[in-house]
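Now for one record.
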Amino acid sequence: MAKQGTLLVVDDNRNILTSLQYLLEEYFQQVITLNSPVTIPSLLQREAIDVVLLDMNFSSGINSGNEGLYWLREIKRLRPQIQVVLFTAYADINLAVTGLKDGATDFIVKPWDNAKLVQTLQEAYAKARGNEKKGKQASQPTEKSSMYWGNSSVIRPLRLLVEKVSTTDANILITGENGTGKDMLAREIHRLSPRRNGPMVAVDMGAITESLFESELFGHVKGSFTDAHTDRVGRFEAADGGTLFLDEIANLPYHLQAKLLTVIQKRYFIKVGSNTPQPTNIRLICATNRNLDEMVHNGEFREDLLYRINTIHLHIPALRERKEDILPLAQRFLEQYNQQYLRTLTGFSADAEQRLLNYPWYGNIRELQHTIEKAVILSDGNLLKAENLQLAEVSGQDAPATHEESKEDTPLQTLDEMEKNLVKKAIEQCDGNLSQAAAQLGITRQTLYNKMKRHGI
């Protein structure tokens, strides 16, 4: 059989990459290997990749598979037609199900069987070619917006401001509660910007350990420390010519904030173990759910760094402040999961609509999305009913409190207090299962640990 297709293999083990190169170049026209996933976005801009064999773990000592799932989602977002086969030494059926649900084609466990591996990758290539024939428009997903703005009065000014500032290179700070869609807004800004054809690199600052901060953001050279067996590309370098999105910026420890400030001010960085300054050409977007002005006042966040990242401030309102958008959003998610789970639900019953409108949605759009997904899976018939939503009963849910009652019965909480209560509630509902609680909150397990530590939970 003639060799066909381009295969990308991503694994941090050089021996594995060498072995797979020798094995798979007999079956594929081109085999590209990467020992770090951070350059995947830029590589996808240059190469017509058909299949990706993606390792699940890249950071030393971390075997959760969350890195692999993150890069799987990035690949499917940038190039939905690419088929991704997950590659891991840890045979976890729940991880496999999550990966398949997020768009992976298959799942291979190390140590692998050569014949089975080749067969799986060839089947993935056949599927990729089949999808390509359906039309080339699918290969340009970044031209289409996945952002749902809505029509509420509180969201319209934000949309106008976003459309105005997206065409500039101004640094942007996005604030809002957990689940409001800060990462989605960052991607929309990138899509509307002149940098749209460049990479969009997202970093969860809450998931980076202090000891690896400089290596992760700025990269390192071979031999710079014990485990530095090869050069590593940092996130600033990977985002060159595009957008760097630093999520959960408030989680960056105070003593590391000066290092970030220096790079932003001087527009160059120095890799760990190197003395050579390297220029950076990125558009910086940061996001947080915390009050940075209050953190500055408390000595937890540098005022000069806040000024640098806050050239333009965009605040996303909570879902309960834009109730006109709840039902259209719910319908949008209903259609999405109808397609994903092959269901034929047409809408919501009257009691379900009332329940959706009256529920407080402290988890915002992310909570609404998860609720609709579960309801679609569990429902029977053509309409989603209130009981399918499985929303926890809240006092006065079917009879919203008057303004006077709300002021008297509901004490005002800070965003930090609300976040603490939400984290505690998720952990209680999941009976102490932190992985499940993190998934319900839509954050990584490491970010959940950081929030628990910060709030003393």
